[in-house]
Amino acid sequence: MAENNATIVCVECKERGGDLNIRNRRLCVECFSRYVNSKALKRMESYRFKTLEGDQKRRLLVPLSGGVSSLVLLQVLDTQLQRQIANRNKTAYELIIAHVVLPGQSASAFKDQHLTQLAQRFPSHKFLPSFALATALSFDEAIGEDLKTVGCERHDQESDPDFFHRIISGATSVTTRTDLQSILLQRLLVAIAKAHECESIIWGHSDSRLAALTLADVAKGRGGSVPSTIADGLSPFGVNFNHPLRDLYKTELEIYATTLPEPLMEAMAASDDALLPPTSLRNTAIDTLLTDYINTQGLKYPSIMANVVRTGGKLEIRQTHSLCRLCVQPILNSGNPSPSVSTLCYGCLRIKQDIKP
Ligand SMILES: [Zn+2]
Ligand SMILES: [Zn+2]
Fold first, then answer.
1. Which domain holds residue 267?
2. Residue 56 banded pLDDT, cuts 50, 70, 90
3. In which pathway does it act (predicted)?
4. How many A from CA of 356 to the centre of ligand 1?
5. Nearest ligand to residue 229 Cα
6. pLDDT-derived band of residue 310, with 50, 70 and 90 as boundaries?
């Protein structure tokens, strides 16, 4: 009788209704929110007050793509910092927020107005004006020389956008184009972090995203960069990389974003281009295919996705490896005894073959 109307109770607090089904456990919104925050903050323990020396100021860079993951990351870190202000009237670190506009983002993409709205919503952090991806070509001082190793050389007086356009349109496959863009994006973000004296970049990648990055690296012959792409700690770039959302699935971040008292939906819904179906397989990069695959199939097998990331993270980087000039990742000479010193990794050698600038 009465049982028919009884709601399922949250397994954590055993008080409120367990409206959410999270990894086969019924949770209320409050307990789920605590779950997301504690999973993320457990990965931020190296940035506690305890680890600060004297009156050291610690700055961390958060790249904001406008997708759900980086928005949730910003929300979680902001909540932690607000709590620190309330308890101690100071924070253990400062956040610098950087957004890079990628070429070809559709008209509905994350725009400057979204950035302004977020800066108003999170006023205690420093939001940098958005960067065009082409600014990587001057912001990273070494990149001009490094691009010569794949046959791309700037013409006299050529502007960043013109040079960028020439490089990207010289790529003969979509995968190479995407690969080049992600290398430039990473180098730009590292250059921004260094310019603003940030000791670390805090990435918003979920477990699902890290699995997609791992599989894409392997598929593109970039197995050597897997450990440093997904590991927490000092990266080959000389700044730390951290992934506090690595234990959370993308679907969980989406639920979190929509169940907040003030949902993070608006900016996010406008920017999730990954949800658009690819127009044709031929015009789709490996990265996009794997991301789509994981966002659909991976949902059914989340523990396999978690295994991909865990296994990838266990691969060792041998210290003796030299770093690739372009992507700044270890060069693996798999079984090749030749002592010839290569300046490019296998993945970047393929870029060199696929680009006709
Ligand atoms: Zn509860
Ligand atoms: Zn490389």
1. 43-353
2. confident
3. tRNA modification; 5-methoxycarbonylmethyl-2-thiouridine-tRNA biosynthesis
4. 58
5. 2
6. confident
